[in-house]
Amino acid sequence: MKNFLQLLLLLISVLPITLLGQNSISGIISDAESGETIPNAVVLIKGSTVGTTSNLDGHFTLLNITKSNIIEVRYLGYENFTAALDTIDLNQIFEIQLSTGSRKLEEIVIQGEKDQMVRMSENISQVSISPIQVQALPGIGEKDIFRSFQLLPGISGTSESSSGLFVRGGTPDQNLITFDGFTVYHVDHFYGFFSAFNSNAIKDVQLYKGGFEAKFGGRISSVMEVTGKSGNTNGLGIQGGISPISSNLTIEAPLFNGKGSFLIAGRRSYTDIIQSKLFDDINGLFQSEPESDGGGLAPVNDLFLRNQNDPVFYFYDLNAKLTFRPSRKDVISLSFYNGQDNLDNSREVDDETFGDAIIGRFNDVGLTPVGEGVAESIDLFNHTDDILKWGNYGTSLKWSRQWSKRFYTNSVAAYSNYFSRRDLLSATSLSVNDTTININVSTLEDNDLKEYMFRWDGEYLVNESNSLEFGFQLSSNRVRYDFILNDSTTIIGRDDKGFVGSAYIQDKLKLGRLEVNAGIRLNQFDVTEEVYVEPRLSAVYRLSDKLRLKSAWGIYHQFVNRIVREDISTGSRDFWLIADDQLNPVSKATHYVAGIAYETDGWLFDIEGFYKDMSGLSEFSLRFSGAISNNNGQQDLNLSANQLFFSGTGIAKGLEFLAQKKIGKYTGWAGYTLSQVEHNFPGLNDGVFYALHDQRHELKLVSKVEIGRWDLASTFVYGSGKPYTAPVGSYQIELLDGSVGNFISIGDKNTFRLPSYQRLDISATFNFELGKVDTSLGLSVFNFLGHQNIWYKEFQVITGEIIETDVNYLGFIPSVFINFKF
């Protein structure tokens, strides 16, 4: 690492300091209404392949241009901007304002079509979505950036219970998600039906589905870079919205005499106050019970009954950002985020009417809780405290500076914290034939992840065909995870620290029709005391102005992993740990990507193939026979944590097809993915098995049409069945207290397939002005055809028989929403 940093400093010191070309242009791109700078806007010299993109501060530079050139600027959701350079003073910073409306900005402007909702970058596997236009897409009441990305090929769109992105065979934890520079480890609100980000606080989103460049590291699947709004520099701005689940409000205003701005955005559900039908439908998925025998109790197995209850739940998130521009070259910003979900699932049972139902259960099998015989009277009392909280904190301090037309730097100091804690205590008193049994069961699951990070990035424009990028990152993580049963039995107790020092350098080079991005990233991980080398290479070759070939290859490592916990009885409760090459190894993936694209002004046809070789995957399983209940309801655990962790490998491969109509009154796209994801975990399963998120076919159709003030949109998603594990039989074991327990024999992992998934969503949005307030009133219908899509299957043993129950996703769900802005 020391040698690499010395080499990096030497390389920077001898960069060619060439003079600027005879003519060059430097400018800043911003929103005409709010003054908000716009990153990642495409800047082109019309009629040529010369172009660039604006950086995070909206700044761009083009070298060696002529006064006869015409410049064109495009950005998602905004009207295209064109201007003749002979009308511009090239010695001044050119301020370009983009408009979402039809008014002219300058006399030199020639208005064009509004850019599309989704843009596939000319770079391989890079895509962006307009936060402004996703409002028109159907959903569950609110516009959601993450749900919109799930409508693209290569990203699973059939996981209603997760806002996280399953990208090209990867899982959500394998995606690097940053918001203004800090890492966000968990992106789900409300069991995953909403993402953790308020779209009104987002300015730009870039997703790299694979083969991403050397400036990004620490994840093996994909990268999502989210840039938050800085705030209105022209005046006070207020916008908000109301949906059946939550409401949101955003306030922004200028500061420091126009040199700065602030933004604060908050969102909160009112599900703890008003439990709408939508809340009941979503909550019912996670509190699902078999049909009750009466009295509020539902059968679970031969000897036990489960209580039904109405939990108290709400979520909130808060964004705040302060931005200061002391000069035209400097931007200093402080960003803060907090999002949290709170679930109180506590309940109590104390009713003699339950006795008759319970007596029937025990007498059917000829047993009572105190041995053989007939149960004549039963009194039951149960009190359960069940509190679950999870969420994120994040903050970053950023200073970026455009030192010259050629040299730009960005420095970020950031802090991130993910937390999840569940406290469960169940106290039961059961009196049978004047004999009382007290059973106390408790579970504590506490996962806390903290990250302190500093990152410095530099960009040097060598000439019009060569751009050099370099930088380093220092990350310190502390991850704690406690999994404790009955206050005394520790299944897992970890408190680990890890430090990663990274440095990278990459060169973006244009050689005629060929564009190459070659780079290398070095990571030194103190836990394993190893240096991990990550070379990266991508290329785009233009066969013509409309047709291009593209490819990418790279090696990636991940040092903080979310462990998949397979627990047949309690479901999936994944948790984060630092890799240590003992319980869970450092994850590694090698990406191979190739594609071809044909693009005109109005249409895009894109095909990409991918192959991803993964190793160091981890899973935690409670499939063991060492848990035996004793007379006090305690458990004796005879296996160590080492025997509960499994590591494995995986291969993900597939083809993605996209056909998109980009501009006009009618826009949309059709996407299809053919893929396969296989895992191999020795000790957990014999041989290779399909991953839970493996899905052979997935088709998505998205359409939007503008008719006057109306935006009409629809989305259709079809996915072939995902795999699942099913029992192959049941058996009984006599426990130490003389009672008999029913157990399920689990078959080979993921050998069965669920039925296919199908969902049609529609929406209609009416846009109008209410005084000086821009208002949108809409109706959205989720699962318009009411198709029953199976989420997973439950298996229970009842009177010696295995009973299979389908747990379905949401059915027909209409919702009304209103958004306003002034």
What does this structure look like?
It is globular, with a radius of gyration of 29 Å. It is built from four helices and 53 strands. Helix content is 5%, strand content 57%. The chain is mostly beta strands and 822 residues long.
Based on the model shown, name its key terms:
mainly beta; 53 strands; 822 residues; globular; 22-stranded antiparallel β-barrel
Structure summarized in a few sentences:
This protein is mainly beta and 822 residues long.
Instruction: Flag low-confidence runs.
Output: 7-21, 102-112, 288-307, 567-572, 624-639
Shape: globular
Average pLDDT value?
82
**CA-to-CA gap between the ends?**
52 Å
Helix-and-strand structural type: mainly beta
The major β-sheet equals:
22 strands, antiparallel, barrel
Instruction: Report the radius of gyration as a whole number of Å.
Output: 29 Å
The share of residues in extended strands comes to over 45%
**Level of helix content?**
under 10%
Total number of helices: 4
Give the beta-strand count.
53
